[in-house]
Amino acid sequence: MDDEFTLPADTLKILNEFLQQKAQRERDELERIENKAASDVMFEEDWQLSQFWYNESTKQALGKAVCKLLSELQNEANKNSYRIALLSCPSLYDTVKQLHNNVKIFEFDKRFSACGEDFVHYDFNKANESGYLEEFKETFDLIIADPPFLSEECITKISKIIGSLSKSSTKILFCSGAIVEPWLTTCLQLKKCAFEPGHERNLGNEFVSFANFDIDSYVNS
Ligand SMILES: C[S@@+](CC[C@H](N)C(=O)[O-])C[C@H]1O[C@@H](n2cnc3c(N)ncnc32)[C@H](O)[C@@H]1O
């Protein structure tokens, strides 16, 4: 007996339309969830916490850089285990999370606990406490940081945390005021780059980037 059967043409047409509509509904739902997630985890700047969010072109440029770094990974296994840490730069979370699942957002502002398990509450002031953030020691492949203050103490303490979270191969991007260069380069092997992050509001200070890799070629390609 022949197991195959054929549906009448009109039934087949109805079935195909139904499947197409179902697929479209699923796509719409996914888009709705993504948009909701994006808007859910962004908040008004709190100037008490020295919060100055990146502008859209900076988020896009850094998203492009992350995308390119991920595309250089040899295979899916490497990609899945690739870990990204965002230190005090929460406005990048949505952009990066849409590109890669394995992201931690280290933040002092507890509103960002809306990011769920990706959120790690931290305070740079605790950098010298023994065993601080020990569970993340030498864990990350890419670290992007933007400390709250342009003071030697803040830069030194955040650098210490970055050093602890890094492996020897970790790529580090550090965005801050130009004036932090002497303190920063004493702590970490980073060089000033041409890429200049921009903000939604104009800041009085000259804002620059430092990295241990050629971030300029990643944001510009
Ligand atoms: C200059 S803003 C950088 C924000 C970045 N430009 C962005 O768009 O996401 C500094 C960040 O440090 C966080 N912050 C404030 N106090 C902190 C502390 N004690 N420890 C760690 N981070 C802190 C702020 O909440 C803020 O997100």
What does this structure look like?
- The longest helix is centred in the first third of the chain and has 32 residues, at 9-40.
- The chain has a seven-stranded mixed beta sheet with strand order 3-2-1-4-5-7-6.
- The chain has two domains: 1-40; 47-220, Vaccinia Virus protein VP39 (Rossmann fold).
- It is elongated and about 75 Å long.
- With 221 residues, it is of the alpha/beta class.
- The chain starts with 8 loop residues before the first helix and ends with a helix.
- It has seven helices and seven strands, in the order αααβαβββαβαββα.
- The protein has helices spanning 9-40, 56-71, 76-81, 93-99, 152-165, 181-187, 215-220, and strands at residues 84-87, 103-107, 119-121, 140-145, 166-177, 191-193, 207-211.
- Bound molecules: S-adenosylmethionine.
Largest sheet, order of strands side by side?
3-2-1-4-5-7-6
Task: Look at the structure and give the CATH class of the largest domain.
Answer: Alpha Beta
Q: Structural class, please?
A: alpha/beta
User: How many alpha or pi helices?
Assistant: 7
Bound molecules: S-adenosylmethionine
Q: Total domains, how many?
A: 2
Say which CATH homologous superfamily of the largest domain is assigned. Vaccinia Virus protein VP39
